[in-house]
Structures are given as C-alpha cells and as structure tokens.
Amino acid sequence: MAQALFMGGLSFLLAVIWGPPLIRWLRANGVGKKIRIEGPRTHQVKVGTPTMGGLMIVLPVVSLTLVLNLGNLIANTAAGRAFLRQMGWTGDQLIGRSILVPVAAMLAFGALGAVDDWMGTRGGNGLLARHKFPIQIVLGTALALVLHFGMGLRSMAIPTVPQKIDIGLFYLPIAVFIIVGSANAINLTDGLDGLAGIITATSFIAYGVIAYLQGQIYLATFAFIVVGACMAFLWFNAHPAQLFMGDVGSQALGATLGVVALMTGQWLLLPVIALIPVAETLSVILQVAYFKWTKGKRLFRMSPLHHHFELLGWSETQVVQRFWLIAIWSAMIGVALALL
C-alpha cells in the first residue's frame, strides 16, 4: 500500500504542475464550454470556461503508468532486482503487464471523448449519440475480449459466497455493458463543479482498497494513480471552476472504472460503490420514459438528478458535498461487502 499511496501522491503533483499550462492552452485555442439553454440559469455564467480538462487526468495517469511498466522491465534485470530487494519492493509490486488493459481503456475512451469535445467547441454539438454509442460498443467489446481471453476473467463474485461463479461466455456481454454503462454514467454525472471528479476518485479509492486486499498490488497502484490525478483536477475544478472535465475525462474515467471493477472480480458491487453515477443514469432513463409515457409530463424537475436538486433550491456546492457524502457511504458499504 505504501507504493500505491506514494504513486498517487506523485500523480497529484504531476497533474497539478501540468494544470496551469493546460488551462492557458485551452483558453488560447478557444476550447470553451457550451451550456444547455434549458439548464439552470445559474450555469449561464459558466459559458466559455475551458473544457477538455480531463487531459489533466488522462495524460499524467497514462504517462506515469507506462513509465512504471518500463520500470518493471528494468526490474527484471539482475541489477534491478537487487536494487528493489534493498527497497523492499519487487517488479510485480510496481506494475504488471495486465495494467495495460485499463490504460488502453483510458486512452481509447479518452480519445473518443476528445473528438466529441473538440467538435462541440468548433461550432457543432459534438458527436451524435447514434454515432458515439456504436463506437463505445466496439471499444467495450475489444476490452471485454482481452479481459476474457487474454486475462482469463470469466467469473463473478457474490458477497457471502466463498467461491466465484464461472459464467463462461456470458462474461463478454456483461463486461461490455459494464464498461460502456460506466463511461456514460460518469459522463452524466459531470454537470456541477467538482462533482464527477470527487465521485470518481471515491470509487477508485474503494476499488483500490479491494485490489490491495486481493493482493493485486499493481491494480491498487494504478487505482491510486488515478485518484491522485483526480484530486489534482479538483484543485482547478472546485467551485467556481477554472476548467471542466469534458467527455475526454468523464468517458475515460468511467470506462476505466468499469475495467478496474471487472479486474477485481467484484463488478457486482459497482452499482453500490458508484451509487451516485448509477442514480444519475437512472434519473435520465426514468425521465425520458415517463415523459414519453405521459406525453409530456416530467418525473423530475430536470435530469440528470443533480439538476433536480438544484431546482429544488439546493446550491451547487450543497449538491456536490451531499452527493459526495453519499458516495463515501456507498463506497464503504461496497468495500465491506467485498470482504464478506
């Protein structure tokens, strides 16, 4: 755990240093946020705030993880093994080749989100859902195939049941659903200053602890690297935000969270640990279904769910802080269930 926490701290420092020049570059290139016309009026002041801030998370996480993977190769040399023994570490504790799967998820979905963000700031509305969703399915399928056939993952863990249950090829569609669903859930959560970053960091902390308790040190290290970068992003995204995450961050983090959950085998607990993103997604689904069923009536004042509470009179910071408290509680419950 010492390595994981240290690397998380290093990730925070790298991302914080990378933040100001990224903000200047985004402003210089006019990468500003558009605000929904039908959204809360208080959000109109945010028009033009730099978006694509997820690059502050994605680039340090990917760079640091790849450097660690290179360090693993060096650790396999005689000199490297001797040095690590003196430090009390081993090459496997630093990183593992399998960690390249969540890195690939972050890069692939981050690239898709970057295209969406860039198109949205160049006078358009970004990628249409009917174009973006099939691409997400393709990317999710590729990752699911690697997890199943490349890493041999094919089971699910149920709390209180000692043995994991082998579900065979049913693992593939479930994995695709988790990866794509998680990517879109975090994307829907990203609507208030600090909300998506703090909720995602909390979820990664929970799965980092679960990975550590399973002995997957490399996966725990990766999870805390992501946590450190998210915390650095929150330094600039705290209300009033200097920049927004954008799809490049929300989709990358969501898909990566889904992959990490699958790698721990505790993916059944994802709706518990990521309770807020799940609730945000369900609010959108229920709102649309109810609107069509009643031919124009609304179940919530606005969806996703955080806007509903804003229109009830909660301030933006109240929504974020209260949602975060719920996220901490749900993460604690999730980790506890993983131990049963």
TrEMBL record:
Q: What is its main location?
A: membrane
UniProt keyword annotation of Transcription present: no
User: Which PROSITE patterns does this one have?
Assistant: MRAY_1, MRAY_2
Q: How does it sit in the membrane?
A: Multi-pass membrane protein
Q: Where are the transmembrane segments?
A: 52-74, 94-115, 135-153, 165-186, 192-210, 217-236, 267-291, 323-339
| A cellular-component GO term for this protein | plasma membrane
Q: What is its EC number?
A: 2.7.8.13
Q: Which InterPro entries match?
A: Glycosyl_transferase_4 (IPR000715), PNAcMuramoyl-5peptid_Trfase (IPR003524), PNAcMuramoyl-5peptid_Trfase_CS (IPR018480)
Q: In which pathway does it act?
A: Cell wall biogenesis; peptidoglycan biosynthesis
Chain sites annotated for binding Mg(2+): N187, D247
> What's the catalysed reaction?
UDP-N-acetyl-alpha-D-muramoyl-L-alanyl-gamma-D-glutamyl-meso-2,6-diaminopimeloyl-D-alanyl-D-alanine + di-trans,octa-cis-undecaprenyl phosphate = di-trans,octa-cis-undecaprenyl diphospho-N-acetyl-alpha-D-muramoyl-L-alanyl-D-glutamyl-meso-2,6-diaminopimeloyl-D-alanyl-D-alanine + UMP
Pfam families noted in UniProt: Glycos_transf_4 (PF00953)
Keywords, ordered alphabetically: Cell cycle, Cell division, Cell membrane, Cell shape, Cell wall biogenesis/degradation, Magnesium, Membrane, Metal-binding, Peptidoglycan synthesis, Transferase, Transmembrane, Transmembrane helix
Which GO terms of type biological process are on file? cell division; cell wall organization; peptidoglycan biosynthetic process; regulation of cell shape
The keyword Cell membrane is annotated on this UniProt entry = yes
Q: Under the GO molecular function aspect, what terms does this record hold?
A: metal ion binding; phospho-N-acetylmuramoyl-pentapeptide-transferase activity; UDP-N-acetylmuramoyl-L-alanyl-D-glutamyl-meso-2,6-diaminopimelyl-D-alanyl-D-alanine:undecaprenyl-phosphate transferase activity
Needed cofactors, names only, are: Mg(2+)
Q: What does this protein do?
A: Catalyzes the initial step of the lipid cycle reactions in the biosynthesis of the cell wall peptidoglycan: transfers peptidoglycan precursor phospho-MurNAc-pentapeptide from UDP-MurNAc-pentapeptide onto the lipid carrier undecaprenyl phosphate, yielding undecaprenyl-pyrophosphoryl-MurNAc-pentapeptide, known as lipid I.
Under NCBIfam families, the record lists: mraY
Which HAMAP family does the annotation name?
MraY
Q: Which family does it belong to?
A: Belongs to the glycosyltransferase 4 family. MraY subfamily.
Name of this protein: Phospho-N-acetylmuramoyl-pentapeptide-transferase
Gene of origin? mraY
